[in-house]
Amino acid sequence: METNWEPKILAFLCNWCSYAGADLAGTSRIQYSPNIRVIRVPCSGRINPLFILKALQSGIDGVLVSGCHPGDCHYISGNYIGRRKSTTLKRFVEFLGIEEGRVQFSWVSAAEGGKFSQVVDEVTQGIKKLGPIKRFVKKEELREAKSEARNPKYETISKL
After folding, report:
1. Sign of torsion, CA 96 97 98 100?
2. Rounded CA gap, 78 and 135, in Å?
3. Which domains does the chain have, with CATH numbers?
């Protein structure tokens, strides 16, 4: 493993709570790990689990999904739906052989900038312990093979 390796972490944050908590952490100048890249979503319950799997397949080392505390959702039951999806996805990721801890879920409200910073730092440290993702990542050779297959000089007679 490289000594200067830093994990790439993708965070799906609820617009109403977790993203506002991240904003509060920033405006309050609370330090947290810079390894995180944020995608703001309307609700944690609207995140398609395939987005998370695609991120891992693309080489993202870890994914954080953060939403409103249960019972505080702007969309009434969105975070309950997100919680059910997270439970199912955790089992599926385990079935795929991806290490536990690559996908993490948390609840952060708009007033919890300090907690957001703490969650990000804990997720980053957990991913650093796991190291770079190796399973489920598309290999470069496969990408090259697909691009060669699309090359017109390899067309088959059935397509002519």
Report:
1. positive
2. 31
3. 9-159 (3.40.50)
